[in-house]
Each structure stands twice: as C-alpha cells, then as structure tokens.
C-alpha cells in the first residue's frame, strides 16, 4: 500500500486496507458470469459485520444476494436503517482507465477504482463508523440495521419483493443513504428533493410496409413527419410545456427556496462548461438550478424511424417511434401526467396515421423537510462533521428505492452525499477522496448520535 501524508482527515490504515479489499471484488451485477464474485463480495461484508459486533446474513433475494445485518438491540431507542449497494457498473471501456478498475490505486489524495464513490466507499464508511463506535463505546446509540443490496445498478430488481418478505425485520424509524453527490469538495450536502418520473413511448404507424418515397411520397402521410409534428407541440417556443393542465398542481417556489438554491456553490458557468452547450435554455423566469431542481420537464429520450445507415435511401417509413420521460415535482403524479399527455397527443393526432401509446415506469417525486426532527438531525450531523452548514440540494434525478422505502416501510429517507463532483461514477477513473472515508466514518457516528436525541 502506498504511503500518504498524515492528516486528521486521513483514514486509519486498517480502514483503508479494508476499502482496498472491498474494491478488488469485481462485483458487476449486470454480468451473469460474475454471480460467484457477487457471492464472495457479499460474504466478505457479512464477515466484516459479524466480526464488528453485528448479526449479519447473506440473504437470498431471487437475484444477487443482499447483506442484512442487525446491531445489538437497545430498548427505547429509534431504529435506523442504512441502505447501500455492493454491486458496481462494468469497467468498460477498460482501456480508458489510468490504472485498472479493480486494482485500487491512490493518486492526489483520491482512491481510484470502480465502485470507489458508487457506492463501496460511502457504504463502507457507514459500516466502519458503526464498528468504530461499538469498539470505542461498547454500544451504539440506536438500533441499527444495514441493508446492502447487490442489484442497484440493474434497477434493484428484487429489492421491493425482498423488503416485502422481510418487512417486520426491516421496520425502522428512519433510513439513511449515502449514494448521492456533494455540491463541492468538502461541502456537506443533504439532498432535499428528487424529481419523480413518468415514461411513455409513442409509436406512429402509417403504411403497412416501407414505401418508395418517389412512388408514394406526397400522397401518403409519412409517420416520421406526423411524429415530429406531434413532438414539436410538447413545448411552446419559450420552453414552457404546452400540454394543457401540465402545471396545474405545481406549487410555485417560495422566496426562501429560491434563495437557498441561489446560495449553492454551483454556478451557471459550471453547467455551461460541463455540458459544452452554446447556451443554457429552459423555462423563462427560472434559473438553471431551479429548472433542474424544482420544475417539471418533458424530454425526448429516443427517436427512431426510417433509414439510418450510410448515404441515402429513398424510403417513406411505415413506422416512427419516440421514447419520452417527464420529470415530476411535488403534487404531480405519473398517471395524471401521462393521462394529460395522451389526451394532448390524441387531440393532435392526424387522421391518416395510427398512434399507439405505451406507458412505461413511473416514480413519485420526493421531498424531505430539513426542519423535521429527522431532517434537522441530519443537518446537525453534517455540520458537526464537515464544520460548515450543509447545502440543501434539489436533485433533478430520481432514486426509485426512496419511493420503495416510503411505500413498504413508511419511513423517510435521508440522503447524505459523500461523492464530490469529479467522482466519475459509472465512468473511467471513478474515484473517492481518501478524506471522505474518514469523514464518512465520523458522519455515520455523528448521525447516529443526533438521530438518537432527535
Ligand atoms: Zn449507487
């Protein structure tokens, strides 16, 4: 193991050694031939937790196993469930990594490996935090459960079923997850809201087969043309969504919310640089962070029709399709939004083509009240650990498990980010700051203390 400078925020050598071991498992959940490695990785976690004072098991789920562990029972204290995942994304393209993805390496105070920030570094910090408290204090301040799954990167296929089957054992007062980002290095971040999602596919069918565009063009409605006409109606010229009723239930942001977003250390110029676009655009009268964090959207994710090979083919395609998703904010529901969009498309559908609308998955938006007892405890823990008050982030994306927890366990989820910008989750050279292992351990300890006295 390479040496690194001594600093109060650097992890203990034994902890770092454990992270290296954890990162060496090629626990790629999407590759079926990696199943034995997934089992070995889960068994490693089980041993670590059992050795640290937990009662841990590798639990079958119907897919890759989950690791479930309970700390010592303490009557009269709240129960906290920590969720994370030990599976990782594939390392492809492997040649773009500076050092191999499953041979952890330290450079410039960061540990480079697949899974370093998503999510092995953060979940290990929680485990080591609990073990450290048990070693130093002999007891934990709360009843603690770890649920570490092996299928997060493949859509948590069996998680809901597993939680349903083990619901009584998983019952808890609050859930904490470190699988989100930080707004800046060393900048503690509590994700306060996530947008929901509603997915839809629109298929426009015209002639029974592809036609010669010279022989039939001009007399037969082209499904691709019909589809782009429909899609172009989704937004007004100013960027607002034109579907009647779409914004009906959307609460306008309060002045306080707008000020909190404006105070985040994320600037328009950063978005422009990161995306490489000529100009940031969107709904008028909202900033970029507001457009991403608190406003709903309609996006075309895929568009397919006709000839897409090299050169020209004079075809009038028989079919055109588009995949759409809508990001939702509080008070919107996936089914209502899809209803409105379907009515809108049907209203504008040309009579010369058939249209099929296929509804996809949906997820509700999520918000945490940072002034609620659990929210405030998380804010205090982040403040104590990082020495500054946390950014309250409004994330544009969706995390389906948060909804699963709400539905099946009825508990709120605290999203405490440990991955700073530049962690490159899912990309080559994924990394995690060494100091975040130690800070994550201390955050876990502070969080349990604060949740115990909420
Ligand atoms: Zn993750």
The N- and C-terminal alpha carbons lie at a distance of: 41 Å
Structural class: alpha+beta
| Strand fraction | 15-25%
What count of domains describes the coordinates? Answer: 2
Within CATH, the superfamily of the largest domain carries the name: Zn peptidases
Q: Specify the CATH class of the largest domain.
A: Alpha Beta
Low-confidence stretches: 1-6
Percent of residues in helices: 25-40%
Rough shape?
globular
Which architecture of the largest domain would the CATH scheme give at its second level?
Answer: 3-Layer(aba) Sandwich
Number of strands: 18
Indicate the CATH topology of the largest domain.
Aminopeptidase
Ligand inventory: zinc ion
Radius of gyration: 24 Å
- How many H/I helices? 13
Averaging pLDDT over every residue, what do you get? 94
Largest sheet: 9 strands, mixed
Structure characterization notes:
With 454 residues, the chain is of the alpha+beta class. The protein folds into 2 domains: 13-193 and 365-452, 3-Layer(aba) Sandwich (Aminopeptidase), CATH 3.40.630.10; 196-250 and 296-363, Alpha-Beta Plaits (2-Layer Sandwich). Helices cover 33% and strands 22% of the residues. It has helices spanning 13-24, 35-51, 116-137, 159-165, 167-170, 223-232, 255-262, 268-275, 288-293, 334-348, 373-386, 400-409, 434-452, and strands at residues 55-59, 66-70, 79-85, 105-107, 110-112, 143-149, 174-177, 189-194, 196-205, 211-212, 297-305, 315-316, 319-328, 354-363, 366-367, 391-395, 412-417, 431-433. Strands 1, 2, 3, 6, 7, 8, 15, 16 and 17 form a 9-stranded mixed β-sheet that branches. Strands 11-13-9-14 form a 4-stranded antiparallel β-sheet, covered by helices on one side. Helix 3 (116-137) packs across helix 13, helix 4 (159-165) runs parallel beside helix 12 (400-409) and helix 11 (373-386) packs antiparallel against helix 13 (434-452). The longest helix has 22 residues, at 116-137. Zinc ion binds at residues 85, 118-119, 152, 179.
